[in-house]
Amino acid sequence: MKSPLVVSITGAAGQIGYSLLPRIASGQVFGYDQPVALRLIEIEPGMKALAGVVMELNDCAFPLLESIEATSDLDHGFSGANWALLVGSVPRKAGMERKDLLGINGKIFIGQGQAIERNAADDINILVVGNPCNTNCLIAMNNAPGVPQNRWHAMTRLDENRAKSALAEKAGCHSRDITKLAIWGNHSSTLYPDFENALINGDPVGKYIPDRAWLEGDFIKDVQQRGAAIIAARGLSSAASAAHAALETVMSLRETTPAEDWHSVAVASDGSYGVEKGLICSFPTRSDGKTASIVQGVELSDFAKAKFQLTLNELLEEKAMVSELLPK
Ligand code: NAX
């Protein structure tokens, strides 16, 4: 039997946590021969609900679930962590400005970054899901200088999956027929889903969807606004699809990406495509089974460059708004 992999999850009593946890505990994510030890982190008001989640996990009697610890103590919660999924964050409330939200969540991510640096295992990898995820990730990473920058990720896989689903519906094909669909920039309503480099059955999207106006207009807008559409329909934000995308992100990072494909995740820029070094920006990436690298040489048209610049500008604005939370 392998020794257990320690997986720390913040916001574990929330709706994404509820969808994530059984799948991690079942072995689906880290392998059916890999025991997992869960460290579930909540704030005090969430601890009671978390106790119920723990009861349910125990009642599943998962053979691979070695242990569960529920805590509001960050040092304990990240102790020995091999993976940290940072899902918890404070939602935007009526009357709250974007800057307020960035400030409130930013402070949370300072503490989490520091606790990860102090307590996690040497091979720690982090995926930030809690919004605004790119900038939360930037703050945590900058407050954990001892953790290599290539271990930090923020989630844009849900946006990739949403874009694939929208293209498939329009083209009358299946989402599995679509490859190389990259999300560029921020996980926000400015993100750019790159239909020009995506392929359907190996061919350019334009072969199946000649309606360029739809691609430039409704397609981009619908992907950018999909989260809001789900809230309008369900009365709650996306949870099952968000949890699924988080787990797919982890699984994709842990396997070699096929040469004919790539996936979207926000990582610390290495200066590629003119993006300021260290900014957490979504790119097309490939993993070697351990580390995601930004795919080089992807051609961006003038249209794509303009869209990318818009979302990049937003990331730079967010960074400026939280500058006091980033150690010099
Ligand atoms: P919920 O409100 O259901 O759950 C959040 C949980 O986090 C709560 O139980 C709360 O007590 C806990 N929490 C808050 N602050 C915490 C802290 N400092 N430490 C530990 N736990 C804390 O939200 P849920 O629907 O699960 O969404 C979680 C986050 O994911 C939100 O920020 C949401 O905006 C974000 N999303 C990100 C997506 C992405 O693609 N990157 C898509 C889905 C989702 O909207």
How many alpha or pi helices? 10
Low-confidence stretches: none
User: Could you tell me the radius of gyration in angstroms?
Assistant: 19 Å
SSE topology string: EHEHEHEHEHEHEEEEEHHHEEEH
- What is the terminal separation in angstroms? 45 Å
> What structural class results from the helix and strand content?
alpha/beta
**Share of helix, binned:** 40-55%
Strand order of the largest sheet: 3-2-1-4-5-6-12-13-14
Largest sheet: 9 strands, mixed
Q: Can you offer a commentary on this structure?
A:
The model has no long low-confidence stretch (mean pLDDT 96). This protein starts with a strand and ends in a 7-residue tail after the last helix. It is α/β, with parallel strands linked by helices and 328 residues long. 42% of the residues lie in helices and 18% in strands. Helix 1 crosses helix 9, helix 4 crosses helix 5 and helix 6 crosses helix 8. Strands 3-2-1-4-5-6-12-13-14 form a nine-stranded mixed beta sheet. It has a three-stranded antiparallel beta sheet with strand order 7-10-11. Strands 8-9 form a two-stranded antiparallel sheet. Ligand NAX is lined by residues 10-11, 13-17, 41-43, 46, 87-91, 108, 129-131, 133, 155, 158, 187, 227, 237-239, 242.
